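Whiteboard transcription, Tuesday session. T.W. wrote the C-alpha coordinates on the left side:
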Protein backbone atom coordinates (compact mmCIF):
# COMPACT_ATOMS: atom_id res chain seq x y z
CA UNK A 1 0.00 0.00 0.00
CA UNK A 2 2.81 2.33 0.82
CA UNK A 3 4.24 1.78 -2.67
CA UNK A 4 0.89 2.60 -4.22
CA UNK A 5 0.60 5.81 -2.22
CA UNK A 6 4.11 6.87 -3.25
CA UNK A 7 3.28 6.26 -6.92
CA UNK A 8 0.13 8.39 -6.58
CA UNK A 9 2.15 11.09 -4.88
CA UNK A 10 4.78 11.05 -7.65
CA UNK A 11 2.06 11.27 -10.30
CA UNK A 12 0.49 14.26 -8.58
CA UNK A 13 3.84 16.03 -8.40
CA UNK A 14 4.49 15.31 -12.07
CA UNK A 15 1.05 16.57 -13.01
CA UNK A 16 1.65 19.83 -11.15
CA UNK A 17 4.98 20.31 -12.95
CA UNK A 18 3.38 19.67 -16.37
CA UNK A 19 0.53 22.08 -15.63
CA UNK A 20 3.06 24.67 -14.52
CA UNK A 21 5.04 24.32 -17.71
CA UNK A 22 1.85 24.54 -19.81
CA UNK A 23 0.89 27.71 -17.99
CA UNK A 24 4.32 29.20 -18.69
CA UNK A 25 4.00 28.29 -22.39
CA UNK A 26 0.57 29.90 -22.58
CA UNK A 27 1.83 33.07 -20.93
CA UNK A 28 4.84 33.27 -23.26
CA UNK A 29 2.62 32.63 -26.29
CA UNK A 30 0.28 35.41 -25.22
CA UNK A 31 3.21 37.79 -24.83
CA UNK A 32 4.55 36.86 -28.26
CA UNK A 33 1.13 37.28 -29.86
CA UNK A 34 0.69 40.64 -28.14
CA UNK A 35 4.09 41.82 -29.36
CA UNK A 36 3.32 40.75 -32.93
CA UNK A 37 -0.08 42.43 -32.88
CA UNK A 38 1.43 45.55 -31.34
CA UNK A 39 4.18 45.61 -33.97
CA UNK A 40 1.62 45.27 -36.75
CA UNK A 41 -0.43 48.04 -35.19
CA UNK A 42 2.60 50.33 -35.01
CA UNK A 43 3.51 49.46 -38.59
CA UNK A 44 -0.09 50.05 -39.66
CA UNK A 45 -0.14 53.47 -38.04
CA UNK A 46 3.22 54.32 -39.60
CA UNK A 47 2.10 53.10 -43.03
CA UNK A 48 -1.17 55.02 -42.74
CA UNK A 49 0.58 58.24 -41.77
CA UNK A 50 3.25 57.77 -44.44
CA UNK A 51 0.99 56.75 -47.30
CA UNK A 52 -2.75 56.63 -46.74
CA UNK A 53 -3.48 59.56 -44.44
CA UNK A 54 -5.67 62.03 -46.37
CA UNK A 55 -4.12 65.34 -47.34
CA UNK A 56 -7.49 66.31 -48.76
CA UNK A 57 -11.01 64.91 -48.60
CA UNK A 58 -13.94 65.31 -50.95
CA UNK A 59 -17.28 63.61 -51.46
CA UNK A 60 -16.39 60.16 -52.73
CA UNK A 61 -12.64 60.10 -52.18
CA UNK A 62 -9.38 61.43 -50.76
CA UNK A 63 -5.94 62.61 -51.80
CA UNK A 64 -3.40 60.58 -49.83
CA UNK A 65 0.01 61.50 -48.46
CA UNK A 66 1.65 59.16 -50.96
CA UNK A 67 -0.18 60.76 -53.89
CA UNK A 68 0.60 64.29 -52.72
CA UNK A 69 4.27 63.39 -52.31
CA UNK A 70 4.47 62.13 -55.88
CA UNK A 71 2.70 65.18 -57.29
CA UNK A 72 5.00 67.44 -55.28
CA UNK A 73 8.15 65.83 -56.67
CA UNK A 74 6.72 65.95 -60.18
CA UNK A 75 5.70 69.60 -60.25
CA UNK A 76 7.85 71.44 -57.72
CA UNK A 77 10.58 72.51 -60.16
CA UNK A 78 8.07 73.45 -62.85
CA UNK A 79 6.09 75.70 -60.51
CA UNK A 80 9.26 77.28 -59.14
CA UNK A 81 10.38 77.99 -62.71
CA UNK A 82 6.91 79.43 -63.47
CA UNK A 83 7.37 82.07 -60.80
CA UNK A 84 5.66 80.61 -57.74
CA UNK A 85 7.43 81.14 -54.44
CA UNK A 86 8.37 78.26 -52.15
CA UNK A 87 5.62 79.39 -49.79
CA UNK A 88 2.98 79.19 -52.53
CA UNK A 89 3.98 75.89 -54.13
CA UNK A 90 2.72 73.43 -51.46
CA UNK A 91 -0.85 74.73 -51.63
CA UNK A 92 -0.74 75.05 -55.43
CA UNK A 93 0.22 71.39 -55.70
CA UNK A 94 -2.43 70.39 -53.17
CA UNK A 95 -5.08 72.22 -55.19
CA UNK A 96 -3.90 70.75 -58.50
CA UNK A 97 -3.52 67.19 -57.20
CA UNK A 98 -6.89 67.31 -55.45
CA UNK A 99 -8.57 68.61 -58.60
CA UNK A 100 -7.09 65.74 -60.64
CA UNK A 101 -8.13 63.19 -58.03
CA UNK A 102 -11.70 64.56 -58.06
CA UNK A 103 -11.72 64.35 -61.86
CA UNK A 104 -10.30 60.83 -61.82
CA UNK A 105 -12.96 59.71 -59.35
CA UNK A 106 -15.68 61.23 -61.53
CA UNK A 107 -14.22 59.49 -64.58
CA UNK A 108 -14.22 56.11 -62.86
CA UNK A 109 -17.79 56.65 -61.68
CA UNK A 110 -18.70 57.42 -65.30
CA UNK A 111 -17.32 54.05 -66.35
CA UNK A 112 -14.12 55.30 -67.99
CA UNK A 113 -11.43 52.61 -68.18
CA UNK A 114 -8.09 52.19 -69.87
CA UNK A 115 -7.85 49.71 -72.71
CA UNK A 116 -5.17 47.03 -72.62
CA UNK A 117 -3.29 48.94 -75.32
CA UNK A 118 -3.44 52.23 -73.39
CA UNK A 119 -2.22 50.54 -70.21
CA UNK A 120 0.59 48.87 -72.13
CA UNK A 121 1.56 52.23 -73.59
CA UNK A 122 1.90 53.75 -70.10
CA UNK A 123 3.68 50.69 -68.74
CA UNK A 124 6.22 50.88 -71.57
CA UNK A 125 7.34 54.24 -70.20
CA UNK A 126 8.51 52.48 -67.04
CA UNK A 127 10.86 50.03 -68.73
CA UNK A 128 14.56 50.23 -69.46
CA UNK A 129 16.51 53.29 -68.44
CA UNK A 130 13.83 55.86 -69.26
CA UNK A 131 12.79 56.10 -65.62
CA UNK A 132 16.28 56.31 -64.10
CA UNK A 133 15.93 60.01 -63.36
CA UNK A 134 12.71 59.37 -61.43
CA UNK A 135 14.31 56.53 -59.48
CA UNK A 136 17.29 58.72 -58.63
CA UNK A 137 14.90 61.41 -57.43
CA UNK A 138 13.38 58.96 -54.95
CA UNK A 139 9.97 58.50 -56.59
CA UNK A 140 7.66 55.70 -55.54
CA UNK A 141 7.45 54.14 -59.00
CA UNK A 142 4.16 52.34 -58.35
CA UNK A 143 2.59 55.62 -57.22
CA UNK A 144 4.09 57.48 -60.16
CA UNK A 145 2.68 54.93 -62.60
CA UNK A 146 -0.71 55.21 -60.91
CA UNK A 147 -0.72 58.96 -61.50
CA UNK A 148 0.13 58.40 -65.16
CA UNK A 149 -2.91 56.11 -65.26
CA UNK A 150 -4.96 58.90 -63.67
CA UNK A 151 -3.93 61.30 -66.45
CA UNK A 152 -4.85 58.82 -69.17
CA UNK A 153 -8.30 58.22 -67.69
CA UNK A 154 -8.91 61.94 -67.07
CA UNK A 155 -8.05 62.72 -70.70
CA UNK A 156 -10.50 60.08 -71.90
CA UNK A 157 -13.16 61.48 -69.60
CA UNK A 158 -12.79 65.08 -70.82
CA UNK A 159 -12.79 63.91 -74.44
CA UNK A 160 -16.03 62.04 -73.75
CA UNK A 161 -17.58 65.14 -72.19
CA UNK A 162 -16.58 67.23 -75.21
CA UNK A 163 -18.12 64.70 -77.59
CA UNK A 164 -21.37 64.66 -75.62
CA UNK A 165 -21.87 68.44 -75.59
CA UNK A 166 -24.93 69.36 -77.68
CA UNK A 167 -25.10 72.20 -80.20
CA UNK A 168 -27.73 73.84 -77.99
CA UNK A 169 -25.38 73.79 -74.99
CA UNK A 170 -22.56 75.26 -77.08
CA UNK A 171 -24.81 77.98 -78.47
CA UNK A 172 -25.87 78.99 -74.98
CA UNK A 173 -22.27 78.88 -73.72
CA UNK A 174 -20.94 81.05 -76.55
CA UNK A 175 -23.69 83.62 -76.09
CA UNK A 176 -23.23 83.76 -72.33
CA UNK A 177 -19.45 84.05 -72.70
CA UNK A 178 -19.08 86.38 -75.67
CA UNK A 179 -22.46 88.08 -75.87
CA UNK A 180 -25.86 87.51 -77.47
CA UNK A 181 -24.71 88.96 -80.80
CA UNK A 182 -21.75 86.53 -81.10
CA UNK A 183 -20.63 85.54 -84.60
CA UNK A 184 -21.17 81.76 -85.03
CA UNK A 185 -19.37 81.42 -88.37
CA UNK A 186 -16.39 79.17 -88.89
CA UNK A 187 -13.87 80.71 -91.28
CA UNK A 188 -11.86 77.98 -93.00
CA UNK A 189 -8.58 79.59 -94.00
CA UNK A 190 -5.17 78.54 -95.27
CA UNK A 191 -2.04 80.57 -94.78
CA UNK A 192 1.66 80.64 -95.51
CA UNK A 193 3.71 82.12 -92.68
CA UNK A 194 7.21 83.57 -92.80
CA UNK A 195 8.31 83.97 -89.18
CA UNK A 196 9.91 87.21 -88.01
CA UNK A 197 10.68 85.89 -84.53
CA UNK A 198 13.14 83.30 -83.26
CA UNK A 199 10.93 80.45 -82.06
CA UNK A 200 13.55 79.23 -79.57
CA UNK A 201 13.89 82.59 -77.79
CA UNK A 202 10.76 84.44 -78.99
CA UNK A 203 13.04 87.37 -79.85
CA UNK A 204 12.46 89.43 -82.98
CA UNK A 205 14.75 88.88 -85.94
CA UNK A 206 17.08 91.66 -87.02
CA UNK A 207 15.85 94.19 -89.57
CA UNK A 208 18.07 92.58 -92.18
CA UNK A 209 16.67 89.13 -91.48
CA UNK A 210 13.11 90.46 -91.56
CA UNK A 211 13.74 92.05 -94.94
CA UNK A 212 14.98 88.73 -96.32
CA UNK A 213 11.79 87.06 -95.08
CA UNK A 214 9.65 89.81 -96.61
CA UNK A 215 11.29 89.50 -100.01
CA UNK A 216 10.81 85.73 -100.02
CA UNK A 217 7.19 86.11 -98.88
CA UNK A 218 6.50 88.57 -101.73
CA UNK A 219 7.84 86.02 -104.24
CA UNK A 220 5.57 83.28 -102.88
CA UNK A 221 2.59 85.68 -102.79
CA UNK A 222 3.06 86.39 -106.50
CA UNK A 223 3.05 82.66 -107.23
CA UNK A 224 -0.14 82.18 -105.17
CA UNK A 225 -1.90 85.05 -106.94
CA UNK A 226 -0.84 83.66 -110.32
CA UNK A 227 -2.85 80.50 -109.61
CA UNK A 228 -0.36 77.99 -108.20
CA UNK A 229 -1.85 75.44 -105.79
CA UNK A 230 -2.06 77.20 -102.42
CA UNK A 231 -1.84 74.03 -100.33
CA UNK A 232 1.33 72.94 -102.12
CA UNK A 233 2.91 76.35 -101.60
CA UNK A 234 2.02 76.22 -97.89
CA UNK A 235 3.56 72.78 -97.51
CA UNK A 236 6.75 73.96 -99.23
CA UNK A 237 7.26 77.41 -97.76
CA UNK A 238 5.21 77.97 -94.59
CA UNK A 239 7.11 78.08 -91.31
CA UNK A 240 3.97 77.46 -89.27
CA UNK A 241 2.99 74.15 -87.65
CA UNK A 242 0.03 74.00 -90.07
CA UNK A 243 2.36 73.63 -93.07
CA UNK A 244 2.02 69.84 -93.27
CA UNK A 245 -1.76 70.29 -93.53
CA UNK A 246 -1.52 72.80 -96.35
CA UNK A 247 -1.69 75.77 -93.98
CA UNK A 248 -5.22 74.90 -92.77
CA UNK A 249 -6.43 77.16 -89.94
CA UNK A 250 -10.07 77.40 -88.79
CA UNK A 251 -10.81 80.81 -87.39
CA UNK A 252 -13.59 81.99 -85.09
CA UNK A 253 -14.31 85.50 -83.85
CA UNK A 254 -13.52 84.64 -80.23
CA UNK A 255 -10.43 86.76 -79.55
CA UNK A 256 -8.04 83.84 -80.09
CA UNK A 257 -6.66 84.95 -83.46
CA UNK A 258 -4.16 87.73 -84.12
CA UNK A 259 -6.09 90.92 -84.89
CA UNK A 260 -4.27 91.59 -88.19
CA UNK A 261 -4.98 88.04 -89.40
CA UNK A 262 -8.62 88.26 -88.37
CA UNK A 263 -9.12 91.62 -90.08
CA UNK A 264 -7.58 90.33 -93.30
CA UNK A 265 -9.85 87.26 -93.35
CA UNK A 266 -12.98 89.35 -92.83
CA UNK A 267 -11.99 91.40 -95.88
CA UNK A 268 -11.85 88.37 -98.19
CA UNK A 269 -14.47 86.71 -100.35
CA UNK A 270 -14.60 82.90 -100.30
CA UNK A 271 -11.80 81.67 -102.57
CA UNK A 272 -9.93 84.95 -102.31
CA UNK A 273 -6.26 85.47 -101.43
CA UNK A 274 -4.81 88.53 -99.74
CA UNK A 275 -3.25 90.75 -102.41
CA UNK A 276 -0.54 91.95 -100.06
CA UNK A 277 1.36 90.48 -97.16
CA UNK A 278 -0.38 90.52 -93.78
CA UNK A 279 2.03 91.32 -90.94
CA UNK A 280 1.05 89.89 -87.56
CA UNK A 281 2.92 89.47 -84.30
CA UNK A 282 4.23 86.20 -85.74
CA UNK A 283 5.46 87.36 -89.11
CA UNK A 284 4.31 87.77 -92.71
CA UNK A 285 1.19 85.86 -93.81
CA UNK A 286 -0.31 85.04 -97.17
CA UNK A 287 -3.94 84.12 -96.49
CA UNK A 288 -6.64 82.36 -98.47
CA UNK A 289 -10.29 82.00 -97.39
CA UNK A 290 -11.56 78.57 -98.41
CA UNK A 291 -15.04 78.59 -96.88
CA UNK A 292 -17.40 80.12 -94.33
CA UNK A 293 -19.47 77.58 -92.41
CA UNK A 294 -22.55 79.05 -90.74
CA UNK A 295 -22.93 77.98 -87.12
CA UNK A 296 -19.66 76.07 -87.45
CA UNK A 297 -18.38 77.62 -84.27
CA UNK A 298 -20.42 75.19 -82.15
CA UNK A 299 -18.09 72.44 -83.41
CA UNK A 300 -14.91 74.31 -82.51
CA UNK A 301 -12.59 72.08 -80.48
CA UNK A 302 -11.36 75.15 -78.63
CA UNK A 303 -14.88 76.24 -77.67
CA UNK A 304 -15.93 72.73 -76.63
CA UNK A 305 -12.80 72.30 -74.56
CA UNK A 306 -13.39 75.69 -72.90
CA UNK A 307 -16.97 74.76 -72.13
CA UNK A 308 -16.00 71.43 -70.56
CA UNK A 309 -13.15 73.03 -68.57
CA UNK A 310 -15.53 75.65 -67.20
CA UNK A 311 -18.01 72.93 -66.34
CA UNK A 312 -15.58 70.67 -64.48
CA UNK A 313 -13.75 73.56 -62.78
CA UNK A 314 -16.64 73.76 -60.29
CA UNK A 315 -16.33 70.09 -59.31
CA UNK A 316 -14.07 70.74 -56.32
CA UNK A 317 -16.72 73.05 -54.87
CA UNK A 318 -19.57 70.69 -55.69
CA UNK A 319 -17.69 67.79 -54.09
CA UNK A 320 -16.92 69.78 -50.93
CA UNK A 321 -13.15 69.58 -51.27
CA UNK A 322 -11.35 70.22 -47.97
CA UNK A 323 -7.55 70.39 -47.81
CA UNK A 324 -5.66 69.79 -44.57
CA UNK A 325 -3.44 72.89 -44.71
CA UNK A 326 -1.45 71.97 -41.60
CA UNK A 327 -0.60 68.56 -43.01
CA UNK A 328 0.29 70.09 -46.39
CA UNK A 329 2.68 72.49 -44.67
CA UNK A 330 4.46 69.88 -42.53
CA UNK A 331 4.50 67.28 -45.30
CA UNK A 332 5.92 69.66 -47.89
CA UNK A 333 8.74 70.52 -45.49
CA UNK A 334 9.63 66.83 -45.18
CA UNK A 335 9.46 66.28 -48.95
CA UNK A 336 11.64 69.28 -49.72
CA UNK A 337 14.24 68.19 -47.21
CA UNK A 338 14.28 64.73 -48.80
CA UNK A 339 14.71 66.44 -52.19
CA UNK A 340 17.57 68.53 -50.85
CA UNK A 341 15.92 71.86 -51.64
CA UNK A 342 15.50 73.24 -48.13
CA UNK A 343 12.54 74.69 -46.30
CA UNK A 344 9.55 76.42 -47.86
CA UNK A 345 10.06 79.75 -46.18
CA UNK A 346 10.94 82.56 -48.56
CA UNK A 347 13.15 84.03 -45.84
CA UNK A 348 15.59 81.17 -46.22
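and on the right, the sequence the group agreed on:
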Amino acid sequence: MENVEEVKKDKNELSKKVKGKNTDIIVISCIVIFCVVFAFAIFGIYYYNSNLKPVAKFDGGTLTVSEYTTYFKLYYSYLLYSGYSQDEIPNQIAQMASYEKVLYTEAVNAGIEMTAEEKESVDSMFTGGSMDSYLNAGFDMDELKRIFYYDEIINKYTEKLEEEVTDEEMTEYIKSTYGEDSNFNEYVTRHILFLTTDTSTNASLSDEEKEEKRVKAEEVLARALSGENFEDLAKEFSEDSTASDGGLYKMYLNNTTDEAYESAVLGLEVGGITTSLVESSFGYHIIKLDAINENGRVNSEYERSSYVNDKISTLTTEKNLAINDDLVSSLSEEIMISMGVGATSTEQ
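Someone added at the bottom: The two ends are 95 Å apart (CA to CA).
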